[in-house]
Write a structure and sequence with these properties.
The structure holds 2 protein chains of 2 kinds.
Chain A (H helix, E strand, L loop, with lengths): L4 E3 L2 E4 L5 E6 L6 E8 L3 E9 L2 E5 L6 E5 L5 E5 L8 E8 L9 E2 L3 E5 L1
Parallel strand pairs in A: 2-11
Antiparallel strand pairs in A: 1-3, 3-8, 4-5, 4-9, 5-6, 7-8, 9-10, 9-11
Chain B lengths: L3 E4 L2 E5 L4 E7 L6 E6 L5 E7 L5 E4 L2 E5 L5 E6 L8 E9 L2 E2 L5 E6 L1
Parallel strand pairs in B: 2-11
Antiparallel strand pairs in B: 1-3, 3-8, 4-5, 4-9, 6-7, 7-8, 9-10, 9-11
Classes of the chains: A mainly beta, B mainly beta.
Chain lengths: 114, 109
């Protein structure tokens, strides 16, 4: 158990819909990262937040957005869903935002878009 | 961003054998992390390498960072069934991990 929690575990929805994935980092961790894992794209970095502020952006679509709240939990919002958005979404956390930080991954949310 | 190539993509190993997986970059890396993901699980941090030529050992796992900091390797000795999973290298760019495609390891008893 990494100490990072993600809800829900599974999510099944239809194209065009909007969903919200939630992540609670390890106690004391200020940084939250979101990753998408799919068979064709592998494990891709989406976005990072540090203490409530966006710190780095990766391959995140404009239909996707995220935020980190004052209590440090984070939400990833996916809208206008397409079939290709079906994937495993991981949240990870680390103590700081700089380099040389190991990241602790949550169990993931498996999103299926039908 | 930094792109790394991991080889091989798949590795079938007999229990008790040794194997090595490689991670190659066309650019110099500031540091590199290795993660392991068991089937159905999430990535778990194994090690971070920062210095040129660095070698770190964790029991049967030996990690190496090349002298030019453009490649890294993971060598596992006396493979066990618990070593099953996908091993990823991930250059770290200020928290942005750029994961390689991974080496999927299957162990035959």
């Amino acid at each position: 158990d990494s100490g990072v929690t993600q809800t829900p575990k599974h999510l099944i929805t239809a194209t065009g819909q909007r969903v919200t994935l939630r992540c609670s980092p390890r106690s004391g961790d200020l940084s939250v990262y979101w990753y998408q894992q799919s068979l064709d794209q592998g494990l891709q970095f989406l976005i990072q937040y540090y203490n409530g502020e966006e710190r780095a952006k990766g391959n995140i679509l404009e239909r996707f957005s995220a935020q980190q709240f004052p209590d440090l939990h984070s939400e990833l919002n996916l809208s206008s869903l397409e079939l290709g958005d079906s994937a495993l979404y991981f949240c990870a956390s680390s103590t700081t935002s700089g380099k040389e930080n190991e990241q602790f991954f949550g169990p993931g949310t498996r999103l299926t878009v039908l | 961003g930094q792109q790394v190539m991991q080889i091989p993509q798949y590795q079938h190993v007999q229990e008790g054998e040794d194997f090595t997986t490689y991670c190659n970059s066309s650019t110099t890396l500031s540091n590199i992390q290795w993660y392991k993901q068991r089937p159905g699980g999430h990535p778990v941090f194994l090690i971070q390498l920062v210095k040129s030529g660095e070698v770190k050992k964790q029991k049967r796992l030996t990690f190496q960072f090349g002298e030019a900091k453009k490649n890294s390797s993971l060598h596992i000795t006396a493979t066990q069934t618990t070593d099953v999973g996908t091993y990823f290298c991930a250059p770290d760019s200020w928290g942005k991990l750029q994961f390689g495609a991974g080496t999927q390891v299957v162990v035959t008893p």
